[in-house]
Amino acid sequence: MKTKRIIFPVLAAMIAVGAAFATSETKEEKSKAVATFYVLNEDDSSYEVTTTRDPDCDTGSQVCEITTTATPDANNRIPKSQATATGWKN
Questions:
Q1: Does residue 48 sit in the same domain as residue 15?
Q2: Nearest-angstrom CA–CA distance, 8 and 55
Q3: pTM of the predicted model, to two decimals?
Q4: Considering only CA atoms, which of 8, 10, 12 is closest in space to residue 20?
Q5: How many CB atoms lie within 10 A of CB 72?
Q6: Are both 24 and 40 inside the same structural domain?
């Protein structure tokens, strides 16, 4: 009887620790997903984006391509603070 009293709490603790590690790895993998979007317009705080590549996005001073881990809002905008500019056009 004493063996059961010791084994069950130890098993429960092992299962809890394993579950905690399993969920934390899943969260890290999801946060690493980076997506590329193409800029249609921009204002002071955000980019209006699309997934269709702009053929003129090669060189210049105007941002035309960004990478981000954020998803666009209902108006297809991504905050500039959550994006990295990776392509420019004139």
A1: no
A2: 63
A3: 0.62
A4: 12
A5: 17
A6: no
Closest CA to 83 of 39, 40, 52: 39
Q: Which residue is it, tokens 């941002």?
A: 63
Q: Please name the residue that has the structure tokens 């500039």.
A: 80
**H or E, element range at 12:** helix 2-31
- At 38, the amino acid letter reads Y
Q: At CB < 8 A and 24+ separation, what contacts does 25-32 make? A: 31/69, 32/69
- Let me know whether 45 and 78 are in one domain: yes
Q: In this structure, are 13 and 44 located in the same domain?
A: no
- Residue 40's pLDDT band, with cuts at 50, 70 and 90, is very high
Which sign does the torsion angle of CA 13, 18, 23, 29 carry? positive
How many structural domains compose the chain?
2
Domain containing 9: what range?
1-32
Is pLDDT at 51 greater than 70 in this prediction? yes
